[in-house]
Amino acid sequence: MALNIEQGSTSHSAYDLRSHLSEDIETHTLAILVENEPGVLARVIGLFAGRGYNIESLTVAEVDHNGHRSRITIVTSGTPQIINQIKMQLGRMVPVHEVSDMTVEGPFVARELSLIKVIAKGEKRVEALRIAEIFRANVVDSTLESFVFEMTGMPDKIDAFCELMRPLGEVKLARTGVAAIARGL
Fold it and tell me: Residues of the signal sequence (predicted)?
């Protein structure tokens, strides 16, 4: 069986970021102001899914009750070309009022809330409390076998905390996703 491959033919699927090896993959935080109406979130998510773009984090909540507007914060990654495509396609959607790329528009503050359950016994419980104090995690629930810690911070901080807790016992995790806002005026 012969395989015929045309010269110059390359794959440019967003599913395979390796096809863009000449360009660096960047992570961007996008803030999207939308109409707060049924189906808007599904349409935004559909744009990402339909084109094979990955969503690393997603948060959404109403931010203007009187104006019926919600803010969707999405952390995504791709080449600069893919990020620009995402922004342009989002900007063309009817229920979208504004698309802001927080990563390029200036300094911003980003945080994520997480609840981390650590199931541990004996000395491992004491060590879990020591580590939690260092990371400024709050104990919000305690039993004889477990702690539930509340932690707010950058995703990397939460990841580091969980990695230190895993050797102490089973770790269960609930995360909100990144919320972000521009600094200054």
Answer: none
pLDDT in tens, the chain (185 residues): 333 333 333 334 444 544 545 569 999 999 999 999 999 999 999 999 999 999 999 999 999 999 999 999 999 999 999 999 999 999 999 899 999 999 999 999 999 999 999 999 999 999 999 999 999 999 999 999 999 999 999 999 999 999 999 999 999 999 999 999 999 87
Sign of CA dihedral 128, 132, 135, 139: positive
Q: Are residues 86 and 120 in the same domain?
A: no
pTM of the model as a whole: 0.80
The residues near 2 (Cβ < 8 Å, ≥ 6 apart) are: none
**Tokens (6 digits) for 80:** 């600069």
Q: Which of 9, 182, 22, 7 is nearest to 107 (CA)?
A: 182
In a domain, 15, yes or no: no
Give me the domain span that covers residue 135: 108-182
- Domain-ending residue, one of 101, 119, 135: 101
Written as six digits, the tokens of 182 are: 């521009």
Cβ atoms 69, 62 nearer than 8 A: yes
- Number of Cβ within 10 Å of residue 145's Cβ equals 12
| Phi then psi dihedrals of residue 169, to 5 deg | 165, -175
CATH number for 168: 3.30.70.1150
Residue type (1 letter), 155 = P
